[in-house]
Amino acid sequence: MNLLDMIREMPLFMKQFICLILLLNIIKFFIWPGLFKGHSNKDNRRGDKQYPQTKEERKAAIIEAGKQGEAETQFHLSYLPVNEYCILNNVRISDSNTNRKAEIDHVVIGKAGVFVIETKNYSGTIHASSAGWYREKNNGEREALSDPAGQNERHKSLLRELLSYRGYKDIPFYSIVAIANKDAIIMGQSEYAEVMKAENVSACISHKPNVLKDDMVRKIYEEISRLNAVH
After folding, report:
1. Coil, strand or helix: which one is 54?
2. Radius of gyration, CA atoms only, the chain
3. pTM of the predicted model, to two decimals?
């Protein structure tokens, strides 16, 4: 007995059940996908504020992510002993003679010297080098990044010069780029700065050799505070 003969011999309710299964499969594989042709997850994100689409929304999202990253670094810096280190956040300095300006995320002054810190809240795998930076997203795409280490080196250079003008010379300066995103992976380094996760910044600072006295730490802190107060 072949398949057709078996179907003919089946009770009516069994024939109806088989027809229903066939109909559902036709809808599933041929009709249903066509209803959503041309639509993607990206299209469905337009109403979700987690995926900003306009230029203004993207800019606001970047600024908010930056603030969150800076707060993360500030949190980890708070573990440094208050009687040994002075911390300034969001420091703005400028040189009227050269019209150079800098906005520094964090400045830490301790017996080891002055630490100039730039925070980035990058996600994915961050590839750092003196030749250029890029990040590899979770979906495998690569995105070129501006060089935060080079940027921070310019900030450090300006702050060093301004302090030197005021008599604070031969002070050790350190440049650090802190990656605040906990899930980010760092690959490579830069000759301009030490690149590390924000959670490791305090340990890096505390392990540098001490060369300054307490009174000099306080004077440098007060001088940088005055430079910042101009803005």
Report:
1. coil
2. 29
3. 0.72
